[in-house]
Amino acid sequence: MPTPRQMHLGVFILAAGHHIAGWRMPGAEAGSENLPLIRHIARTAERGKFDLLFLADAVNTRPDMHPSMVLRLEPLTLLAALAMVTEKIGLAATASTTYTEPYNLARYLGSIDHMSNGRCGWNIVTGAFADAALNFNRGPHPEHDERYAIASEFVEVIKGLLDTCEDGIWTLDQESGKFFDAAKMHVLNHVGKYFQVRGPLNMSRPPQGYPVMIQAGASEAGRDLAAKVAEIVYAVHQDREVARAFSDDLKRRAVGFGRSADHIKIMPGVSAIIGGTEAEAKAKLATLGECADPIVALQVLAERLGHDLTSYDLDAPVPELPPSGIMRGHAVTLSALAKKENLTLRQLRNVVAATMGHRLIVGTPEQVADGLQDWFEAGAADGFNVMPPWFPGAFDDFVDQVVPILQKRGLFREEYTGTTLRDHLGLPRPAHPLQR
Ligand SMILES: Cc1cc2nc3c(=O)[nH]c(=O)nc-3n(C[C@H](O)[C@H](O)[C@H](O)COP(=O)(O)O)c2cc1C
User: Fold this and answer.
1) Is it the case that residue 134 has pLDDT exceeding 90?
2) Which of 123, 271, 352, 359 should be mutated for ligand 1, with most atoms under 8 A from CB?
3) How many CB atoms lie within 10 A of CB 177?
């Protein structure tokens, strides 16, 4: 009997919670620098048999940023620590293609993949925040499509560097004195429009070949990069049919690049507020709303729409604003929602305070499971990037109350069957180009 299709689950760790007021909930702990909390989240996710955990990042900050992002540990360093306190769960983090060098990043990612025995994932971002340019010596933030062109070449260089050693390079033959097989080490000699990198990388090929590649672009250029290289795609959707069209489009584009549609997993974000009854869950949402800082909420919305909103009337309909080059995916989804539901700016601000524009399900564990099953079975998602409104309680509830329902319905694994992130996702390990 063929194995039934099962969903993939990842937890998006923003350790002060995804709701901007999450950290103020009773029992909530806060902090993107709180290692014991983050270790608890990682282990809880592994107990729940999640495919992966994910750490976002930016290389800038400002006082009115989302509380989960304003002050944070560097995520690749954090992944290395988490690799030591977990055994099976995939470990993914963001790193920018605009503000890092491929040689450095290939080493960091390769090291994490080695140290975790094949559990590393990389969220390829071009840098959604232009202020980052002020922290580097590279001139102004490149414009949107150029950032994607840089990213595309960057990924090529990363793969090339990770391939500079063929598999099976270690001989460690004490008898003959042959330490490793130097014939399996190659020079890359990459000379492109944006990068010139000779190589070889001073590291053997990692357990997964390449880390699992993740991308979250929703623009034309973003979708093309995702279709070309991504194995997980994060997305911001409120509407199931829009999500399905997005998934179909990404898979069609991936096939156009000669890839299998099964090798690109679409994982929209979803936040769940869980209660013993629907009324209890709604009361939690109301409490969160009352605790939210309106200035931070408006700034988080402004970042996503790409426009300063401070001069607009909060009680007037959301103004029509041209799409910006910052976070187009969020901007398009939020503008469509505002139009469909005739929202005022204040109402849209409150939506963003809760989920930054991602889907929100408020209800009992069964209602949350139903909401996930519905999108999964409709072909709108291969799985979900779970965005708990606060930690640890709201995520503990998800793992203890929602995951068992999904498992009982046969929609989610009861045990890990493999050891690497590629195993969990059903993705093949890419063979070395010279060994294919
Ligand atoms: C779930 C999710 C996570 C993201 N994480 C990051 C991140 O950590 N750092 C970052 O700069 N951008 C992040 N982004 C933004 C995307 O990388 C991208 O810039 C944004 O979706 C706009 O892409 P587009 O211009 O192609 O639409 C994230 C987006 C989503 C949906």
Assistant:
1) yes
2) 123
3) 7
Instruction: With cut-offs at 50, 70 and 90, classify the pLDDT of residue 1.
Output: low
| Element holding 253 (H helix, E strand) | helix 240-256
Question: Is residue 72 within 8 Å of residue 32, measured between CB atoms?
Answer: yes
Residue-range domain boundaries for the chain: 8-279+357-435
CB-ligand 1 contact for 329 (6 Å cutoff): yes
Q: How many helices (H) and strands (E) does the chain have?
A: 14, 13
Q: Give the pLDDT band of residue 129 (cuts 50, 70, 90).
A: confident
- In this structure, of 89-93, 100-104, 109-113, 306-310, the range with the lowest mean pLDDT score is 306-310
DSSP 95-144: EESSSS-HHHHHHHHHHHHHHTTS-EEEEEE--S-GGGGGGSSS-SPPPH
The neighbour count for residue 368, using CB atoms within 10 Å, is 25
Asked if residue 436 has pLDDT above 90, the reply is no
Residue closest via CA to ligand 1's atom 1 equals 234
DSSP state at residue 185: B
Indicate the SS3 state at residue 273: strand
Q: Evaluate if residue 3 carries a pLDDT over 70.
A: no
Residue 95 has pLDDT above 80, yes or no: yes
Tokens of 85: 């306190």
Give me the CATH code for the 8-279+357-435 domain, please: 3.20.20.30
| 128 in contact with ligand 1, CB cutoff 6 A | yes
Task: Say yes or no: CB of residue 97 within 6 Å of ligand 1.
Answer: no
Task: Please state whether the predicted TM-score (pTM) of the whole model is above 0.85.
Answer: yes
